Recover the amino acids of this structure.
């Protein structure tokens, strides 16, 4: 069992990892064909992952409904929404419109999902304003710097701000282009080096948490 | 409790009301303040403007309805510009929840600009695999998308004449609201398949993409509603973004005012506590 649970996956990871890392630097047609095939596999696996995700979601909420846990009614709404959408989606062959005529699937998308998602996102503006009022205080020197930068960028990014404070546009551009870009780049380089290190650890079997727990 | 302390604990519904009014009133009574064009947005505009007729522009609508207010006007403005310049447009999405929206956008603008599906533009739709789709497109477009969103085989479409993979496109603009988005198109697309690219994103994402912009990895960036409004001004077709800028101006001003007020009350209450 160790062979199937540990050694074989580690071996596959090692071979695949090294092959694909090398492939990037080899522009030979065989190498390119390999990349084409592997990415096609990835697309197919991505499709299966979607099915797996939906199945898992159904399972989790079925358990909630069966046990009548707190908020199980929401799980019922989720079930109704998912099953309803799948049904109309299959009926419409996954198309929002056919020959310019909106299908039931298209209707559900345009008149339910679009406004619901838009509303959820729009609510954020209200909470951000309330949170800013409650917590954006110059409690320390660092917080004061952050506050000043935020006010300048917020004013500099809208016409009214540039009208009231004509310099705010240029200063906000400078903050974004110089201070923000350099700090972001430093973070990006750090994260990328971390990703490279983690990849090596996975390829060479040092990091094995992706194999999951269980008995060996 | 002092006045400053009372003000610090103000009912949040008052703040909600202020923000609601600041959004609603400018939409009902627009002021139309002039919009200054930033070099980032001009970068995308100038590049599209410089392309010869029938060049292939690839647009990736990587957003869902949640980001519609910011990215929908960007997509509309970009398509209007590309169609006006008589460029061929290949569009797709990496976000399954954005497929319907992307289809609506491209169909609407194509109809408005009298463009023909399959000849002037094609919408490839969505395919699973996230960033793997980008690599697959870079290897072979027809293997990644054997048929378009309408089910027509992509091979033989006049709009894809001479296009076999991402290597053959002239310009790519990724409109992203998250991951996969602009960064993914650079890392998995441009870096390997060498095409020129620009980006569009939500306002909150824009600062994160400045490193790509400053290093020339992307040649322009349309950030948020402001970026969309700038693009609408550049193509001289004012739409929902320009209309929304007054509301955004008022909301930003209100938030800045609220932050200043809360700090004044905070220091006032601290001073009173110190005296007490």
């Amino acid at each position: 069992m160790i062979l199937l649970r540990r050694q074989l996956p580690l071996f596959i990871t090692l071979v695949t990892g090294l092959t694909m890392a090398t492939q990037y630097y080899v522009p030979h047609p065989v190498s390119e064909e390999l990349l084409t095939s592997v990415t096609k596999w990835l697309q197919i696996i991505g499709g299966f992952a979607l099915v797996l995700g939906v199945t898992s979601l159904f399972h989790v909420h079925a358990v909630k409904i069966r046990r009548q846990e707190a908020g199980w009614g929401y799980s019922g709404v989720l079930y109704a929404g998912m099953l309803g959408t799948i049904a109309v989606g299959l009926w419409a062959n996954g198309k929002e419109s056919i020959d310019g005529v909106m299908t039931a699937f298209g209707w559900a998308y345009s008149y339910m999902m679009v406004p619901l998602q838009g509303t959820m996102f729009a609510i954020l503006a209200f909470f951000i304003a309330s949170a800013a009022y409650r917590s954006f205080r110059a409690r320390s020197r660092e917080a004061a710097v952050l506050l000043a930068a935020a006010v300048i960028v917020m004013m500099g990014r809208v016409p009214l701000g540039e009208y009231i404070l004509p310099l705010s546009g240029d200063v906000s551009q400078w903050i974004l282009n110089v201070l923000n870009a350099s700090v972001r780049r430093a973070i990006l380089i750090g994260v990328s080096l971390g990703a490279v290190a983690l990849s090596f650890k996975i390829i060479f079997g040092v990091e094995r948490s992706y194999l999951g727990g269980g008995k060996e | 409790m002092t006045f400053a302390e009372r003000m610090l604990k103000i009912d949040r519904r008052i703040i909600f009301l202020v923000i609601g009014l600041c959004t609603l009133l400018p939409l009902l009574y627009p002021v139309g303040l002039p919009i200054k064009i930033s070099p980032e947005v001009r970068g995308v505009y100038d590049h599209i403007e410089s392309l010869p007729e029938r060049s292939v522009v690839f647009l990736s609508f990587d957003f869902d309805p949640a980001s519609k207010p910011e990215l929908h006007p960007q997509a509309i403005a970009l398509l209007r510009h590309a169609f006006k310049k008589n460029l061929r447009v290949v569009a797709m999405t990496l976000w399954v929840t954005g497929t319907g929206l992307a289809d609506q956008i491209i169909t609407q603008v194509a109809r408005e600009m009298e463009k023909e599906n399959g000849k002037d533009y094609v919408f490839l739709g969505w395919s699973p695999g996230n960033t793997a789709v980008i690599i697959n497109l870079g290897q072979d477009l027809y293997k990644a998308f054997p048929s378009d969103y309408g089910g027509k085989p992509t091979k033989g479409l006049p709009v894809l004449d001479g296009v076999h993979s991402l290597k053959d496109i002239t310009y790519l603009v990724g409109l992203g609201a998250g991951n996969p988005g602009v960064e993914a198109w650079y890392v998995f697309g441009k870096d390997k398949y060498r095409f020129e690219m620009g980006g569009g994103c939500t306002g909150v994402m824009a600062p994160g993409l400045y490193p790509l912009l400053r290093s020339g990895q992307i040649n322009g960036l349309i950030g948020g509603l402001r970026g969309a409004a700038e693009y609408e001004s550049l193509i001289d077709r004012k739409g929902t973004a320009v209309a929304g800028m007054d509301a955004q101006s008022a909301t930003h001003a209100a938030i800045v005012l609220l932050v200043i007020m809360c700090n004044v009350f905070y220091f006032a209450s601290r001073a009173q506590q110190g005296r007490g």
